[in-house]
Specification:
This protein is α+β, with helices and mostly antiparallel strands and about 280 residues long. The chain has seven helices and 14 strands. The longest helix has 16 residues, at about 130-145.
């Protein structure tokens, strides 16, 4: 089956620092860019821009630091108020390195519970959007009501892949299409049944969008992604449709409960010596 080439259209928009009408802003920005959202498109929206539209901006001066947060801040060389924010926002804290805590938040392993202090005035921080999946669904309904368009929605973020330099796109939330394509039971090129593969469609689309949205001073919080091939529908989605319980995550479990402990001798792996884990 032939498909149309994938098209990713950046839509710049004004910088915002407090609550605003996200849909109206997109409509004005798309018109200014000479673009129009179409049926079947997927609209990728910066999760940070979405959070700012909800007023999810907080002044660090307003934060009162608890003894536990102060202890974390000292141990991991953090701003105590930032450490307190992470304690308040994270679903789980695993540990950290100087300046950062590794957390689980809204189904994503992320530094500092996704709290962002870039591209916002000094002394402020932006939290994750409130109830990301409900927010994405609300945006999809608003696009249908105000533009008459049936489109999918992704709230985009970026993350660090374990063991790799650089950030890549990750879908914080999705609305209008299933974020995972299950390939299990289907046949590969040689007729063998697939056993474990589930494709992260939403994350893949998000990565395409991030290429044109940028992360620095591009001021491009929207991207229209066309010809993705996703099937749109009013699916009831939440974090359980895409996130694995961190207790089952190979990265987390291999470095915690599944650590290689009490190795008696140095082991050779691919010709390299591996020292015992202590």
């Amino acid at each position: 089956m032939s498909r149309q080439p994938l098209v990713v259209i950046p839509v710049p928009a004004p910088v915002q620092q407090s609550a605003f009408d996200l849909i109206a802003t997109f409509m004005e920005a798309a018109a200014a860019a000479g673009e129009q959202l179409q049926d079947g498109d997927v609209l990728a929206i910066s999760s940070k821009y979405t959070a700012i539209s909800q007023g999810r901006v907080i002044s660090l001066d307003s934060i009162e630091v608890t003894p536990f947060a102060a202890e974390l801040a000292e141990r991991y060389s953090m701003n105590p108020k930032m450490a307190q924010l992470v304690v308040q926002e994270a679903d789980h804290i695993f540990g950290g390195i100087p300046g950062f805590l590794l957390t689980y938040k809204d189904g994503i392993l992320s530094p500092n519970a996704g709290i962002d202090r870039s591209n916002i005035p000094n002394g402020l921080a932006v939290l994750f959007p409130e109830q990301p999946y409900h927010t994405a669904a609300d945006i999809r309904r608003a696009l249908r009501d105000r533009l008459g368009v049936d489109a999918g929605v992704i709230l985009t973020d970026s993350w660090l892949m374990p063991g790799r330099l650089g950030t890549s796109g990750v879908a914080l939330a999705t609305a209008g299409f299933k974020p995972i394509q299950d390939e299990r039971g289907k046949r590969d090129l040689f007729g063998n049944p697939m056993q474990v593969t589930q494709r992260g469609i939403a994350d893949s689309i998000c990565q395409c969008a991030q290429l044109v949205m940028g992360e620095r001073d591009e001021a491009t919080p929207f991207a229209v992604v066309r010809n993705t091939g996703v099937e749109l529908g009013d699916f009831e989605l939440d974090v359980d449709d895409v996130a694995i319980d961190w207790r089952l995550c190979i990265y987390v479990q291999s470095l915690t409960a599944g650590r290689l402990e009490d190795v008696r001798e140095t082991t050779a792996v691919n010709g390299h010596k591996v020292e015992p884990v202590r």
